[in-house]
Amino acid sequence: MKTPPSFITRFAPSPTGYLHLGHAFAARFAFEAARAVGGVCHLRIEDTDRTRCKPAFDAAIADDLHWLGFSWPEPVRRQSDHRADYDKALTRLHAMGLVYRCFKTRKEVIEAIDRAPHLPLTKGDTATAPQKPPFTGGPITTGEEMDLMAEGKPYAWRLSMARCRDHLGADWSRLAFREEKLSSDQGLKTQIITVVPDLFGDEIIARKDTHTSYHLACVHDDAHQNISHVVRGNDLFAVTHLHVVLQTLLGYPTPIYRHHPLLTDDHGERLAKRNQSVTLRHLREMGKTPEDIFARIDEMTAHRG
Ligand code: GLU
């Protein structure tokens, strides 16, 4: 009998555009990490935001990744097929009294951040501070809430940090995760990161429009897919603090994390999905091979040190 792999990771793009060089760079980290130890790397499609995700981009993901030479177990997990799971997780947090409705229409602030889990690049590669003020508004009164519900006003669900603190008791200050970093000699350096549970304040964990959030769907799926190692970009380092809180509340294990640097252009900016010239699709059409893609990536990273 074959023993199950002890290293299980995932590559989890959102189909909001065609994959580009930055994705090829990130995919290589995840797929290579698994390959190096005889583990598995799943492909997961994070498409809970139906307004931004497009079927054409979704179909192109597997096609481009196969072209690059990566493979993964089937079936691919597509988050839009599993809304009921995320609803259940939310219901559990609700039953524990840890979430509250938020009717705020500060759309720009709230939704912009929640739609893009990525934080702007900050100096160094272990950004810990979120790029927005944490929300600490707290719940409104039951009376106000009833009125707004009667009006049919849409609402999001926020995680109450004050209640989480009470709920977790002494564990609140003991939360931590293991971060592995590739060191210059290609070995792995392990660091234990102490979690700052309220780094994001009362974060939205179920959006008004999608009824879930990247955070909730991500921690649920990592547990469901037995992910032992999360290999992803540094822009998601900070949200790991919140993810560990959610994992602890929901009784999910905390995986080991490996946050890798992001591929940046000559100006130090992240490659944007809207920049067609760096999409794998475009480069393929131009006659480039997967070897050319990785050679270009190596060149881009080499001259930046
Ligand atoms: N879906 C996220 C993205 O588009 C990745 C989330 C993760 O790896 O945790 O990059």
Q: What order do the helices and strands come in, and which of them pair?
A:
Elements: E1 8-11, H1 21-36, E2 40-45, H2 55-68, E3 77-78, H3 83-95, E4 99-102, H4 107-115, H5 142-150, E5 156-159, H6 161-168, E6 176-182, E7 188-194, E8 204-206, H7 214-224, E9 229-233, H8 239-250, E10 256-260, H9 280-285, H10 290-302
Parallel strand pairs: 1-2, 2-3, 9-10
Antiparallel strand pairs: 4-5, 5-8, 6-7
Helix pairs in contact: 7-8
The structure holds glutamic acid.
Notes on the protein architecture:
This protein has 10 helices and 10 strands. The radius of gyration is 20 Å and the shape is globular. The strands form 4 sheets. A 3-stranded parallel β-sheet has the order 1-2-3. Strands 4-5-8 form a 3-stranded antiparallel β-sheet. Helix 7 packs across helix 8 (239-250). With 305 residues, it is α/β, with parallel strands linked by helices. The termini are far apart. Strand 1, helix 1 and strand 2 (40-45) form a beta-alpha-beta unit. Bound molecules: glutamic acid. Glutamic acid binds next to loops.
